[in-house]
Amino acid sequence: MLLDRPEAIVTIFRSARPTARGGSERPVYPSSGASGADVAAPPGADVGRPRHAGGRAVRLTGAAAAVAVALAGCATSSSAQVSEPGTKGGEASLALPDLGAVTIMGGGSGRTLLLVGLLVCALGIGFGVLSYLQLRRMPVHQSMREVSELIYSTCKTYLVQQGKFLLMLWFFIAAIIIVYYGFFVDFTWGRVAVVIGFSLVGMGGSYAVAWYGIRVNTFANSRVAFASLDGKPLQMHRIPMKSGMSIGMVLISIELIMMLIILLFLPRDLAGACFIGFAIGESLGASVLRIAGGIFTKIADIGADLMKIAFGIKEDDARNPGVIADCTGDNAGDSVGPSADGFETYGVTGVALITFVLLAVNDPAIQASLLVWIFAVRVGMVIAAALSYLANDAWARSRYANVERFNFETPLSSLVWVTSAVCIVSTYAITYAVLGETLAADGLWWKLATIISLGTIAGAVIPELVKVFTSTHSKHVREVVKSSRQGGASLNILSGLVAGNFSAYWLGMAIVGLMGGAYVMSGMGLDALMIAPAVFAFGLVAFGFLCMGPVTIAVDSYGPVTDNAQSVYELSLIEDVPGIDAELKSQYGIDVQWDKAKQMLEENDGAGNTFKATAKPVLIGTAVVGATTMIFSIIISLTDGLTTGMENLSLLHAPLLLGLVTGGAVVYWFTGASIQAVTTGAYRAVEFIKDTIKLDAGATKASEADSRKVVEICTQYAQHGMLNMFLGVFFATLAFAFVEPYFFIGYLISIAIFGLYQAVFMANAGGAWDNAKKIVEVDLHAKGTALHEATIVGDTVGDPYKDTSSVALNPVIKFTTLFGLLAVDLAVSMSNEGQGTLVAILAAVFFVVSAFFVHRSFYGMRIKTSLEDDGAERAEHGRPGGDGAERAADPLLAPELAQSGRGEVR
Fold this sequence. Notes:
The protein is mainly α and 906 residues long. 75% of the residues lie in helices and 1% in strands.
């Protein structure tokens, strides 16, 4: 009934879009009269359709079309109204105030202060590059260097392919930019080119820092492995810490330089266009690299791990061709992804705050002061992070220089807390210097500093809460191990789910508490400066999350280095090198302790697992809180500064409620699609490894060709899975923005909230499973037992939880919100041009295309083998079974089958 009468559900576009400040015009939105016949078929609907599934695909497309028409009907009410935009181009048309007019304490100008900030950023890059050079010069045995360079070589191949993939997807974004700004907004083609150009700059920045992160980490992994040989743990901590700080300092400094250049050197009326283009580009880069990297790494990880059960071989056995792919994946998923994600998160949060200040603050002088303050605090945090790292490193050297063992988590935790304290002191000092005189009334300067500090505290408190559920010393993780003793993999998995669910509760309450504190502070006079001060306070909390940016990235990057170090040690076969003990003694002065080296590598990897887990909720929390600020910027624009159309922000406005429901559906689809890509890819990787692994007496290591083939399989499934998911999200964003703007606002709020809890639950459940296996291996010395096999199964379940689905939700939320800014402006502009019918039709078409890719993300990625037991066939042929014809028809597998000669029908 509801689908038959959509006009009974919603009245669309009641909000007034301002023609000028203080007034609006509200033309009638014309009826579209859309019907099923008006809905275009999705482009390329026959591409990649599953074998024998054509009827299902047609039926699904028809059903999607029906739903799409119903959604489009939401935009067809003859009573619906929309106002004329006051400033065409939305946020891209915003102009900056004069930053040079800001006077800071002591008489300097705001512009001069930010110019000094450029110098600080240059020094930050220098700090990172110096650390890079120091890592490169560290001693390492040739056998280990060769392995790390092979890993880097495969990483380079992966990144080159991802770069081409990124450019292909960028054309979708560029097309929307050209259509909107070129044809519906009064932008000159030169201005359109600026938006497009800065989208390339943002995407290139994400890509460049990801590449830098891989290069640094692949230097560090072999150096950590080598440092373990003398039995002293300190260097094993300092090396991955140095590589992580190198990445963090370079990443944050480059991001700041790019944004400061826009602020200081480009025409002020171009700033909005530059920032929006820049943010969309870096969000696209992070989305692709994070999602594809997460799929790649878990295909390889699961493929390598399951061999331990199938063949009873050791961790990182050199004969396993999946191990090199696993090492590449550690970098693709745990280095490339977080680097690009951190770069984007830092930038997008800044753009959200800039947009809010320009829209919500009326006084240009206050606007300028707040913008100078925000970037001055960011610059101060670069200095604070560097000083904190140096102080913590000095303390670690003095305390652990001569010890034989220590808890690797301890100096990592102390670094986080020291940085948090230094950043808070720095925040108050810089805020007083920049705003102490301008906002002296009612102590507004210290209230703003306090709000940021709440976020900075969160950056330290959240990791401590995460450790409660993921650390090797955690009672929750030890409960997972205990459950596995009698209940095997079943109770192992159930206990991990318990840890994930409990963690979502406690982290959610912590975030709510900190945001609640910010809300209380915002009610103490900030309304004199701006409208909706609470939303600005939430944005500042997200900003505070990132105040420890270099350190957050550093402790996150610690994990892939320690994980790779274990693998490099095993793959190097250094213990079997003739005369190695004497060589190490004569050339490096090392009295090697083999057993102790392997034990410490395991322990360090456990610390890396824990701190990889701690960074995930910080980034997802930042995405959600930052998205709140950006969503409110859309609301301000739609409601003429909260003066018209406010009734549409009520749950009584049905489209808003429908949007809230829709967002949850998309989050759950995305979670399933990302795990499906891992599942199918891991199946093919396992199949290939089982067929090619050589375990006879003379075998010592897998061939490089077989290792590269596993990397190719991982890359193929990562890219195809990413393509389906990205295009599903891309067209869903367009469809829902074109349905109705308040429906879209509800949708954005929904994906942020659902995404927060889904991501935290999955990340911490996965972290618990991962370190439960580490306890069995390190503390219980129970490798090869039934208990170990149970924890391996749990770990393989947790792999896509923690490193694929959960982490990918962060960039998806930000990309959807940022791209949605452009999409909803485009839809409203077209409606105001009298093209309401076209808007309704496009909403339907975009939804059908999105549904097609949702359908394809399972049916185009499913495992294409028969259900019959292939055990007899494997025994007969000495290779995996299945329907050869159907496997040969799999477009993802075709290159592999062609080269392996296994595409024939058997």
